[in-house]
């Protein structure tokens, strides 16, 4: 037994039982992810030969094969230890086969690894794991487009930057809101290793949804390699404004309730016009990022349309998943009903409802149950 292995085993024994189980589970999950990564994607992600001579005039490499990755230009020996950030582009590991298109290595890892936080707490897979997957996917795409032509890569960079903004904002907001319960819960005994493994179907299902929401739209833009246009700019602007509305709504509501009390009805700021700006903003943002932007790229491309269609269908699946979470799982309608039960009958609430929009909502909230209740006094 080597010295390094003995040190590792000694360290594992010193860990608490729950921490040791978590480390083992995450290690197995990472190994599963790496097993899913196509070899072409791994090679392109790890190393890429540097071009010489007229490299500044050559177009960026968006689709590589193993022979291209390790080839030499004008007899120069390739550098096996120099990472070319262009190799992180979403189209690096593409081939003509549809299954390979849907499993590019770095983006599978970006969707799965953050979601593995659900092995610690199941709910984290749809909160911190969700935000983390969006953040990491955006970072990978942004890093992959750093060395491309500025004009041609601008839509790709802006699209990725929106995901980075959304993921970082969501994780920060969730931690700020739950930091007391999070820090307190660390001391509590949690699930066993066997119970954690039972969460894998949920984690993999969430990872698949996040992959469709983030990676597939990004891959479509990378395949299209669009230049800046009015249509692209408008679609990206709508997506960013939707995510910004959600962020401002969460921040403003937290600020008012911290100042005036948790039972305060917030009717100012963005709530003056939107009763649920966080849900409304996300619906606007995801509709633009997962549907409008990819559709515009498909309409403007002919050479890569066969590759784009499966990715567009996957993007639609991602959009449908988040719509189901917001509408089908009664998120918006449930919050509307909760507010009506709590504040219904007060002049302030009734006037606010008449001048504000609830946003997209599945079904209708029953008014009869709350018509005679009155308000809950602060």
UniProtKB/TrEMBL annotation:
Keyword Protease set for record: no
Tree of life domain: Eukaryota
PROSITE patterns the UniProt entry points to: S5A_REDUCTASE (PS50244)
Transmembrane segments: 102-120, 127-146, 158-176, 197-221, 233-252, 308-329
PANTHER family xrefs: 3-OXO-5-ALPHA-STEROID 4-DEHYDROGENASE (PTHR32251), 3-OXO-5-ALPHA-STEROID 4-DEHYDROGENASE (DUF1295) (PTHR32251:SF15)
Gene Ontology, cellular component aspect: membrane
Species name: Pseudo-nitzschia australis
Signal peptide: none
Record's keyword terms, sorted: Membrane, Transmembrane, Transmembrane helix
Entry protein name: Steroid 5-alpha reductase C-terminal domain-containing protein
Record carries keyword Plastid: no
């Amino acid at each position: 037994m080597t010295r390094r292995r003995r040190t590792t085993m000694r360290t594992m024994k010193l860990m608490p039982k729950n921490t040791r189980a978590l480390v083992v589970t995450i290690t197995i999950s990472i190994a599963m992810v790496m097993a899913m990564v196509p070899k072409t994607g791994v090679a392109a992600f790890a190393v890429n030969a540097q071009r010489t001579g007229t490299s500044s005039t050559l177009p960026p490499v968006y689709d590589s094969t193993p022979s291209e990755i390790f080839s030499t230009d004008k007899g120069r020996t390739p550098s096996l230890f120099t990472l070319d950030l262009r190799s992180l582009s979403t189209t690096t590991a593409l081939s003509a086969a549809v299954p390979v298109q849907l499993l590019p290595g770095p983006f599978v890892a970006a969707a799965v690894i953050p979601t593995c936080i659900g092995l610690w707490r199941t709910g984290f897979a749809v909160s911190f794991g969700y935000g983390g997957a969006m953040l990491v996917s955006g970072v990978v795409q942004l890093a992959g487009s750093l060395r491309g032509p500025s004009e041609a890569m601008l839509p790709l960079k802006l699209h990725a930057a929106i995901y980075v903004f959304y993921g970082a904002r969501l994780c920060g907001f969730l931690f700020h809101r739950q930091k007391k319960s999070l820090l307190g819960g660390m001391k509590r005994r949690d699930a066993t290793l066997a119970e954690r493994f039972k969460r894998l179907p949920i984690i993999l299902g969430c990872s698949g949804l996040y992959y469709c929401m983030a990676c597939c739209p990004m891959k479509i833009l990378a395949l299209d390699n669009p230049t800046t246009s009015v249509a692209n700019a408008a679609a990206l602007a709508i997506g960013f404004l939707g995510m910004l509305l959600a962020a401002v709504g969460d921040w403003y509501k937290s600020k008012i309730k911290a100042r005036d009390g948790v039972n305060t009805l917030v009717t100012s700021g963005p709530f003056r016009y939107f009763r649920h700006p966080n849900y409304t903003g996300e619906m606007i943002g995801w509709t633009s990022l997962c549907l409008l932007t990819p559709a515009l790229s498909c309409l403007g491309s002919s050479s890569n349309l066969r590759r784009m269609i499966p990715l567009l269908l996957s993007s639609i699946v991602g959009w449908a998943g988040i719509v189901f979470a917001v509408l089908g799982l009664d998120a918006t309608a449930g919050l509307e009903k909760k507010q009506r039960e709590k504040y219904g009958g007060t002049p302030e609430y009734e006037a606010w409802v008449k001048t504000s929009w609830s946003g997209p909502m599945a079904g209708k909230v029953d008014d009869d149950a709350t018509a005679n209740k009155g308000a809950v006094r602060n």
